[in-house]
Write the structure tokens for this entry.
Amino acid sequence: MMLAGKKVVVVGGSSGIGLATAELAKKQGADVIIASRNAAKLDAVAERLNVIAIPADVTSDQSVADLFRRIGPVDHVVLTAAQLKTGPFKTVAMDDVRATMEGKFWGAWRVAREADIRPGGSLTLVTGFLSVRPRPNSAIISAANGALESLARALALDLAPVRVNAVSPGVIDTPIRAAMPEAARREMLDRIAASLPVRRVGAGEDIAQQIVSFMANGFATGSIAYIDGGALVN
């Protein structure tokens, strides 16, 4: 098993890509710790996967510091947590814009600064392909994703010999889309799937495979992997 005996922390590990990553890391032999703001969901997942759960809020300096003080040295850290709020550029509330950057970009900054990652270990950030293929009404998400990718490259130097990479997913069918009416959600995903070379949208497991690969590959750092079903070449 690729991660036997390794200590892995997944911040945002209670659902979606984070949950899929925690499951796969566990299967690969890792000792897994998951963290997120939703304590009830976190505890349910921890019991099912037989992993450790610690509530944490990436928008809080103190919460992130407390999380990693409690955990101690680790081998790999993954950050998938984000609260994304967007809308038309001219009218989106500045509070929503700030909240998106606070959770996605500054959250990653806090985690990278506080985590005590052993030499040769890794930090993997999850961005999104809007960084290079923007769409209307999502400017702040595009900007946050682009900033995260630049941060990953810079931290590959600043945190060396810890390795830092980013995974940039395309359209993934995760619980973040559950707020949509089911018929509209299904129609949207089917339309996107038909437009992609792979003829399907992604699943959390698709992204988790790349994240775990970055953990295991000791020669990978400063890399951005676009896992998007061919969207960028379509």
About this structure: Residues 94-114 form the longest helix (21 residues). The chain has one domain: 7-223. The radius of gyration is 17 Å. The CA atoms of residues 120 and 218 lie 7 Å apart.
